[in-house]
Amino acid sequence: QVQLLESGGGLVQSGDSLRLSCVASGPNLNPYNMGLLRVAWYRQAPGKERELVAIISSGGRTNYVDSVKGRFTISRDNAKNTVYLQMNSLKPEDTGVYYCYAHDFRSYWGQGTQVTVSS
Known about the structure:
The chain has 119 residues and is mostly beta strands. Helix content is 5%, strand content 52%. The chain is built from one helix and eleven strands; from the N terminus they run E-E-E-H-E-E-E-E-E-E-E-E. Strands 2, 4, 5, 6, 9, 10 and 11 form a seven-stranded mixed beta sheet that branches. The relative contact order is 0.32.
């Protein structure tokens, strides 16, 4: 069992930056097991479906939705059981609740952190 806790959201202006963190915890979690997790960030804007923003594989390969390519960077520090989402040049359309998702042979979700970008 893995628990995910997101942090780092907030209210910012267009063009600003934020770094989200997703800390994983669990009775059997260690840096090796953390490294086996595929981890992603999703977001859900008001009235819209949840969408995949960025994903990082156990091997460190990354992929992004087109709308954030060149602005967002997903990274992981397995020793800290943490995955980050660095968000630069934020736009109002980036507003939403950002969720951390992890998968090994089960799927895990965090509670989400709110990001609001004002114009």
